[in-house]
Each structure stands twice: as structure tokens, then as C-alpha cells.
Amino acid sequence: MLVGILGRPSSGKSTFFKAATLMDVLIADYPFATIKPNHGIGFVKIEDLAPEFGKISNPREGYVKGEKGKWRFVPFELLDVAGLVEGASEGKGLGNEFLSDLSAADAFIHIVDMSGESNGEGKPVDDYYPGKDIEIIEKELDLWYSGIFKKGWKTFARTVEMQKGKLAESIAKQFSGLKVSEEDVKAVLLKSKLDVEHPSGWTDSDVFGFAQALRKETKPMVIAANKMDRPKSKENLEKIKKEFDYPIVPCFAEGELALREADKAGLIDYVPGSDNFEIKGEISDKQKTALEEIKKFGDTGVQKVLNTMVLDVLGMVCIFPAGDKLADSKGNVLPDCYLMEKGSTALDFAFRLHTDIGNGFVKAIDVRTKKAVGKDHVLEHRDGLEIMTK
Question: Where does residue 345 rank: exposed (0-12), middle (13-18), buried (19+ CB within 10 A)?
Fold first, then answer.
């Protein structure tokens, strides 16, 4: 699973990305500091399963943190791309590279500067309305999708009609580079009032509207309302909430980055997503003052953005492969935890572990109840299952 981080120049994208991944990336106060995309690992925060059994996990990937290993951080991929400006779909700025980089993303986190202290090109101003940034991003993404859809559309539509072809299948092929499936196309067509028997009769407005709906279906988006520590941010956020229907999460990426770096350096004990931390190292008065100012803000919201995207918007659940002793052959407790689509079954999980395990599936044992479940058992978030095979 890959989540793209996008936004206009100087919105705080790279700061958010570094706060989420602790990767060493360039953070600068000038536009297009990011040119080539940055790949990194973000984490979903969940309550770990091991403490329920009086144990502490030893993750192979990700990590546990907090008292008695309470919190588990499950990894997924993040991609930070160049800032997007108006006209990107026509190649302005780094538009072509930007859109190409985002093709493989399953969803987008849009970092929006709520302060109003810089404009759509990342230049300092006094009173800029952040809603314009959301409109620009929406427009460029829609033009990107419609541009792909319009290529040879009339010939394509007539061919589908004459050959009585499968419209959804044909459209999905046209968008295959953007991870668009036939099921995605069918879902959008079902919601539309378009004549699927005679697509050659669709107007330009119909084509654009369909492309827009397909974009929203296949690249869902969360708004990370960044720089909420600034004076006008709360006022702007309230306006944004009334105007747009995306999930919107307030955040303070710069504060989160400071906390995570201080934790990494051993100066504080901080669990991402917490509204507090404990000072445990020797720090200067200046460092202490800065950290205490961040504490006043409370939860910085960065972890909530990540959780909202993965668990709520993409609808994933975290599942543990868990035998009777909760440990692998080397004694590592619950070393693995997998992100699965909501609605996945025990058999889907078996195949996720290994093709041979899926093919040999007999039953699964729920580690909590010790009861056997069949291949059609629908997984619940934080389930622990032992797969029994032939």
C-alpha cells in the first residue's frame, strides 16, 4: 500500500514526511525544495495484541512503544512528491513529474498550509485563503484523469459500441497505469446517470464528470490541515470544514518533527499520537522552553492523519499471525502484523502469508477464543489467527 503526500510548494509536505518517517530529507523555505520524490515508511498506530497475554512483541517490521509495549506501529509506504502549482496537468512547475510519481499511489494526503501566510506558489503573503489550494489540487487531479480519458475517446467509444464490448473493462485498461480496476469503473458507472450502451453520445461535460468521479473513487484524499500553531489557522480551518467534504485533520508537523527527533536523541520519552511526553535527558533551558510550547498544543495530529487515512479512508484492518504460544521458532513474540482490506476472510489472510498456506487451508484458530473458524470468516481489526493446513 502506497500513500502519496501532495500539496502546493512550501505547505509543509517535507516536514510532515520527515515527521512521519524520520528520514533525512531537505526542508527549506523556498518552493520546489523537493524535486525527486522521497520514499519512506510511515506507521499506523494500534493497540498491540501481546499485552492482552502479558507479553511484549518483538516486531520484525515496525516497532512497539509505551508502557509494557502497549502501542504497535505497523508500517506502510509513504511518497513525498514535488509541490503542485496551478497548470501542473499542462506541465507547469514540476507537473509532469509530479503526476507520474503519483500514479502508483492508492490514496493522497493533501498537506494544506492553514496559516494563510504564503500563496499558491509558496511565496510569502499576509492573508491567503487555504481553500484555494484545495481547489487547485482538485482541479489538477481532475484534469490529469480527464486528460487520460479523453485520449482517443470518440474512436474508443464508437469501437466499444460497434463491437458490443465491455465498457468498464475497456475504461479500466485505459487507466491501468493509475491502479484503476474494472470494479472501480463499474462502481462509478453505477452511481452515474450516463448511457453506458451509447458512450459515443457522452458530452465533454459527461466525460469530465466521469473522470472526476473516478478520481475520487480511486484516489481518496485526506486533508492534513497543517501549521495549526499559527494565528489565523483556526479561523481558516473552520471555513475549510464548511466548504469541503474530505476528511480534515488539524496538525502541527513542525512540532511533531521536533518531538520525534528529541525522542530519537533520548532527550524525551514520546509516543507518537500522544498529547504528552516525559523529559528524561539533559536539555538546555532553550530546548525545554521549545518543547513545553509544543506540549501546549497537545496532540500534533500527524499520527491521527496517518491513522485516518489507512484505517478509516482506505478501510484497512491489522491482523496478527498468532500461534498458541504467540511466538515464532526463534522465540520472537508476534513478530508480524499485516494490513488487510476490511472484509477480508481467513482464507485471504492465509494466502497473504503464503500461497502454499492458502492452498492448504483447513481452518484458522482465533488466538483469543481458541475457537476454530472457517475460510469465510470475516476478519476483525486486531484479530490474531493461527492458520491450520493439510
Answer: middle
